[in-house]
Amino acid sequence: MGALGCLFNFALWAGGLGGSVGLLLYLIIKYKAPWIALDLKYLAKLGKTKKKLMGYAAKHWTMVDIFEQRTRMYPNKTFLIFGDEKYTYSEMNDMANKAGHAALECGLRRGDIAAVMIYNEPMFLATYLGLMKIGVQTAFLNFNLRHKSLQHCYAVSNAKVLIVGKGDELLHAIQEIDSDIRSDDMKIYVQGHGDKTLEKGYLSFDDLYKKAPTNNINAKIRANIEMQDPACYIYTSGTTGLPKAAVVTHSKVFKGGNLIELCGMKHDDVLYTGLPLYHSAAALIGVGNVVEQGATLVLSPKFSASKFWDDCRKHKVTVIQYIGEICRYLLAQPKRSNDGNNEVRIAFGNGLRPDVWKDFQQRFNIKVIGEFYAATEGNGGFINTFNKFAAVGRSSPFTGLLFPTDFIKYSVEQDEPVRDENGFCIRCKAGETGLMICKIKRDTEYDGYMGKPELTEKKIITDVFKKGDKYFNSGDLMSRDEEYFVYFKDRIGDTFRWKGENVSTIEVSNVISDLDCVEDANVYGVEVPGHDGRAGMAAITMKDNNLPSEEQLKIIYAACEDLLPVYARPRFLRSIKEMIITATFKQKKVDLVEHGFDPSGIEDPLYFMDTTKATYVPMDQELYKRIVQGEFRV
Predict the structure, then answer these.
(1) Which terminus of the chain is more solvent-facing, meaning fewer CB atoms within 10 Å of its CB: N or C?
(2) Residues 6+ apart with CB under 8 A from 536
(3) Residue 82: is it exposed, middle or buried by C-beta count within 10 angstroms (0-12/13-18/19+)?
(4) Distances (CA, A) of 205 to 137, 161, 213, 509
């Protein structure tokens, strides 16, 4: 039913109160508040989802109960396609049961936490579902992390067991931090090594898995799990410091698993994702929606722009997942005559920028763009179910009664909300850009970070519109138009996004500042033409107050390569004589961000990360032009 149909039905309902009253309401809505029709259409969809989730809650179901139900319904239907391998619902259920039984043999019990570090592959899903079958919570470790970051992520997980997926690189990464994470009662199990001899202190998950039965694990083991109980932990950089474990409840798992249905996903769809399963986009939304619909998942080990559409055509994909960078990379590929020859009708994701949106949709012949906005640790979000260009969703006075989000004026220079003479925040008008905030109520989730109450509280703004009220600080700047469609503008604070990942400026700054030759480092993101997000840049002061020498540049490069994941390594350096700080001794970033990396407008020496030479090289105008024109890989 379209928006006009919803409006007409609403008028008919109102007409039951009296013909003149119904007509009056119809005219008021049509000419004074036409956006209400959009609200009714959206809330009608949402009502069905809410009723479904209430049913799950009443049964104390988790996502794995839905998966077992789908297995009974479609035992021989393909659940997963991975390269040339295919797994039916029944086969994946058997694998999950074996993984669950093996986990029990590892000593895991309901309520325990298991950390997993596994590549995008079938055993990730089998392990995740198997752990959920026995009521164990999973902490997803980013397989790109190394050294201090990886050590930190494992430490804050409070995991009883660490399960490492197949791949010598993963095992080596754990071995490098073994002495820092090892405790008397800790166990490390390794997958995919078969009959290979493992070093002392490492146990074979394969041995337990091979011996494990395939029968369904007794559901009593996970009985009476509540919606607000933790299901898993997904790491986010938040706003400061090292990655933090965001608490993901079973309620969030279910909500994520029902999002694409709002954009038209159905039982016979085939969903393709190349996003990492350790993130919420793939694990909660991609996998979750496939399970919820009883659909098919095509999983790629990693994103490949050159193979993306060939994979989609080969497997008759109808739904794809994206982050904005993926769409830009796909557009950058040479045009082919068969670009629009695919069966994809829904592209679902976030971060699709306006300058890419229409070209992407038209070139690849995609009918629906389901752009959404959410934060893993947050309590609110938006979804564009209207295929509205560049919007992440809607937030109207009507929907705001149910989902209380707001937009307040924010001073980027002062890095804080603007307050009036009474000390309260100021709401933005239509068209104004402001900080998006979500009200925290008893019936609104805000789970924050695992074991970090001080960091959870740091994301809360108080006394916003009245004394004592509390709102979640999204850390993102947005605007609303006259129809209450919401548009993402930028991130604020100490986090920026690059290569689809959130980069913590403090984490990068700490790595560089710890070097003997560096006095201090101020890290921020700069825009690079032709790329989404912001590339990392570090303004550095040297201890000898001189320019960094060739040897020192190599040392900085080596530290970044050794201690930071690829996406967090700063692409640019700026050598400054003195760090610029605020009156409260905070590093100032705004002017530095605005300067960018164009040497023609910056007096300070600039350097660029050259991976072929394993060092930072001086940035001149010629190199700048090559980067801007896309001739030099950033």
Answers:
(1) N
(2) 496, 498, 503, 508, 523, 524, 525, 568, 569, 570, 571, 572
(3) middle
(4) 18, 11, 14, 38
pLDDT digits (tens, 9 = 90+) for 228-237: 999 999 998 6
Name residue 175's amino acid. Answer: Q
127-141, 311-325, 486-500: the lowest-pLDDT one? 486-500
Compute the distance between CA of residue 446 and CA of residue 247 in angstroms, rounded to an integer.
9
| pLDDT confidence bin for 28, thresholds 50/70/90 | low
For 57-109, what is each residue's pLDDT tens digit? 999 999 999 999 999 999 999 999 999 999 999 999 999 999 999 999 999 99
Determine whether 196 is exposed, middle or buried from the number of CB atoms within 10 Å of its CB (0-12, 13-18, 19+): exposed
Query: What pTM was estimated for this model as a whole?
Result: 0.84
| Whole-number Å distance between alpha carbons of 278 and 283 | 7
| Cα-trace Rg, the chain | 25
Q: Mean per-residue pLDDT for 173-179?
A: 95
Residue 402 has pLDDT above 90, yes or no: no
Q: Hey, what CATH class is 89-249 in?
A: alpha beta
Q: List, by residue range, all CATH 3.30.300.30 domains of the chain.
A: 495-628
Q: What is the DSSP secondary structure assignment for residue 567, as one 8-state letter?
A: G
CATH 3.40.50.980 maps onto the chain at: 89-249
Measured CA angle at 377 (ends 267, 166), to 5 deg:
65
Cβ atoms of residues 125 and 215 within 8 Å: no
SS3 category, 89 = helix
Q: Which fold has domain 495-628?
A: GMP Synthetase; Chain A, domain 3 (3.30.300)
Q: Which of 328, 628, 300 is nearest to 500 (CA)?
A: 328
